[in-house]
Amino acid sequence: MAQLTRRTTDLLKPFSAALSSTRLLTTTSTTPITVETSLPFTGHKIDPPSRSVETTPQELMNFFRDMALMRRMEIAADSLYKAKLIRGFCHLYDGQEAVSVGMEAAITKKDCIITAYRDHCIFLGRGGTLLECFAELMGRKDGCSKGKGGSMHFYKKDSGFYGGHGIVGAQIPLGCGLAFAQKYSKDENVTFAMYGDGAANQGQLFEALNMAALWDLPAILVCENNHYGMGTAEWRAAKSPAYYKRGDYVPGLKANGMDAFAVKQACKFAKEHALKNGPIILEMDTYRYHGHSMSDPGSTYRTRDEISGVRQERDPIERIRKLVLSHDLATEKELKDIEKEVRKEVDEAIAQAKESPMPDPSELFTNVHVKGFGVEAFGADRKELRAVLP
Amino acid sequence: MILVAYGRQVDCAYVFGEDVGFGGVFRCTTGLSDRFGKQRVFNTPLCEQGIVGFAIGLAAMGNRAIAEIQFADYIFPAFDQIVNEAAKFRYRSGNQFNCGGLTIRAPYGAVGHGGHYHSQSPEAFFCHVPGIKVVIPRSPQQAKGLLLSSIRDPNPVVFFEPKWLYRLAVEEVPENDYMLPLSEAEVIREGSDITLVGWGAQLSVMEQACVEAEKDGISCELIDLKTLIPWDKEKIESSVNKTGRLLVSHEAPITGGFGAEISASITERCFLRLEAPVARVCGLDTPFPLVFEPFYLPTKNKILDAIKSTVNYYSSYDKSSPVHQHTLLEKNHLWIYAFNALDRRVA
Ligand SMILES: Cc1ncc(C[n+]2csc(CCOP(=O)(O)OP(=O)(O)O)c2C)c(N)n1
Ligand SMILES: [Mg+2]
């Protein structure tokens, strides 16, 4: 994945500036390195790919920076929510960052992604800017959906991000429709339709799987298994929490979703598979640090030890930090500096987003139907009120 | 608490839904599973269509199946089960089978910042379905009595709870088991100039408008419909025959809302008695907005304006009257409301 920072605003420091201080990168940033995934893959009706993943110093540093940026953004969103600058329902992604960055590293922006409401970081991964994120979260004009959607409704058409869906499971069959269109146009692209372990119990998933398999669609169904659907642990809700196997006749692959390289390898493998043979399920074993949404402290249905255990042993950013250090690509201080910079970028984006105006009141009526389709609304009393579209 | 009263009485009642065993997102079922056992109060997977279909089967075996849909916005995956299975089971089996023991509870309506998928009022969709009942309480006390009636009613009931009230409403609720009759509207404020009909959380907004109108010498009669189908036409009819005017208000979008049905029926029944067209003050015909929630909602001021112009309907023909100038301004009204609402929010 290219650097997220490049796509943020001009005010922000480009990525290369951050790297110039690090030692090896300028000369050998593209020298291949091979890393092992932390755990083997498990396959269902398929031979899993190798654990050795090719990467470069540049990619390692990108992973570090991109995930640090995502983490910082989500933590800032938490504070903004508590300050009541963000309203509504807000679901954070911290802990799951490796899924987004690993996936992006394996695919192109012509491949489509569609996901549920936990969408901020997926949007960022697709090249969205911090300003668009924060402005949307705060319901401002500069938001990626013009401030009309809020947290659950991030979209980015120019890089194939079909968003942000609030109804659990509804996005999965949509993903099959996207994949059908891709197959029809023979453009060798695929769709990643993402859903949670809770969503995996919705009937729509199984309808989607059947259609995808019946028509050999280039659809990759990505189950982000963070082990809880709201307060319900996976085993309470699913007879078989082996989500990668639940497609029965559809092959599946389970990967460590806390390891960006495992995710990258799995997605690369899945894309090749899907283009040749049709759908595949990828189960990403991951974890969300925050509660389900802002009204959930996240500690009533799981122990604090469980959370801190994952932070200590499986954290996706720490894993990359260790790899960077062990390959001597940067010093600890340099990585800390990157984190500081990222923090600054986030703060600057928030400041900008706060300056962004509320959407014009007429936006209440726009996009209900196509422009000029006779959008009408009614005012007080019996009097009709026609909103003139700008 | 309400469900406790029920559980105590009958041992064939089951309560289930997403996270219900832990108390549910709105804590409505807190402590129930400890009290009545995990066999009778339990979590389901996240699958609304399955939840309702399962509940229909359970009810068909003679049980009281009380299913929770976490938010009314998520009832749509179960729409087919409700419309095609639950509502027609008795009819199409020639009364061999029914799922009368089925009650589906779902929180509905605005919460202040819920956005598109945590705010909707879908009652009208269900009012178009013969074979089910739709009940919406306005307060905790009402909720208990109406819910117990709904559970015991021999027909499947969709019971929408105003989530606005979960946090705001405080009321003495009797400990004992009591029922409030379904399909019986209640006059909660008597008046002589205009009849106002609503349900659920909207009633408290309407009540404030009634109080304001009274300061201008307008006497409003406020009626809580409580059961939307089958609804108490007679009570509304007799009230309108007294006042000669009707206003209906709900949060759901105006077009195709249940207000339209009330308006049409009362116009048929009271045509010669009506002194003004029936006024509807409802949600706008837009998706439920996030930042524009205060613009969208049928607020007190919108209702108050509608009360005044309905009561002054004839005099507004007099071009020189201030009321007429008032209506001329109306095209801009929404924006005025909007900005007022915003000011209040910012303040
Ligand atoms: C149809 C529907 N039912 C219920 C909900 C409420 N709800 C939102 S998220 C969620 C849990 C989903 O869990 P999971 O699929 O594991 O995703 P995660 O939140 O863990 O990312 C529930 C029950 C909803 N949004 N839509
Ligand atoms: Mg989950």
Automatic annotation (TrEMBL), chain A:
UniProt xrefs under NCBIfam families: PDH_E1_alph_y
Q: How does it assemble?
A: Tetramer of 2 alpha and 2 beta subunits.
| EC numbers | 1.2.4.1
An example of a Pfam family matching this protein is: E1_dh
Any one Gene Ontology MF annotation carried by this entry is: pyruvate dehydrogenase (acetyl-transferring) activity
Q: Please give the function described in this protein's UniProt entry.
A: The pyruvate dehydrogenase complex catalyzes the overall conversion of pyruvate to acetyl-CoA and CO(2). It contains multiple copies of three enzymatic components: pyruvate dehydrogenase (E1), dihydrolipoamide acetyltransferase (E2) and lipoamide dehydrogenase (E3).
Which cofactors are named for this entry? Answer: thiamine diphosphate
Species this chain originates from: Fraxinus pennsylvanica
- Record domain Dehydrogenase E1 component: where: 65-361
Keywords, comma-separated and alphabetical: Oxidoreductase, Pyruvate, Thiamine pyrophosphate
Q: Which residue stretches belong to region Disordered?
A: 293-312
Q: What is this protein called?
A: Pyruvate dehydrogenase E1 component subunit alpha
Catalyzed chemical reaction(s): N(6)-[(R)-lipoyl]-L-lysyl-[protein] + pyruvate + H(+) = N(6)-[(R)-S(8)-acetyldihydrolipoyl]-L-lysyl-[protein] + CO2
Q: Name one GO biological process term.
A: pyruvate decarboxylation to acetyl-CoA
Which superkingdom does the taxonomy of this entry point to?
Answer: Eukaryota
Q: Where is the composition biased (Basic and acidic residues)?
A: 302-312
UniProtKB/TrEMBL annotation, chain B:
Q: Which GO terms describe its cellular component?
A: mitochondrial matrix
Q: Give the record's keywords alphabetically.
A: Mitochondrion, Oxidoreductase, Transit peptide
User: Per the UniProt record, which EC number(s) apply here?
Assistant: 1.2.4.4
Query: Residue limits of the Transketolase-like pyrimidine-binding domain?
Result: 1-168
The answer to whether UniProt assigns keyword Cell membrane to this entry is no
InterPro entries in the record, alphabetically? THDP-binding, Transketo_C/PFOR_II, Transketolase-like_Pyr-bd, Transketolase_C
Q: Which cofactor does it need?
A: thiamine diphosphate
A Pfam short name: Transket_pyr
Report the subcellular localization: Mitochondrion matrix
Task: Give me the reactions it catalyses.
Answer: N(6)-[(R)-lipoyl]-L-lysyl-[protein] + 3-methyl-2-oxobutanoate + H(+) = N(6)-[(R)-S(8)-2-methylpropanoyldihydrolipoyl]-L-lysyl-[protein] + CO2
Q: Which GO terms describe its molecular function?
A: branched-chain 2-oxo acid dehydrogenase activity
Listed GO biological process terms: branched-chain amino acid catabolic process; response to nutrient
State whether keyword Mitochondrion applies: yes
Q: Which Gene3D superfamilies match?
A: 3.40.50.920, 3.40.50.970
Its quaternary organisation is: Heterotetramer of alpha and beta chains.
Q: What is this protein called?
A: 3-methyl-2-oxobutanoate dehydrogenase (2-methylpropanoyl-transferring)
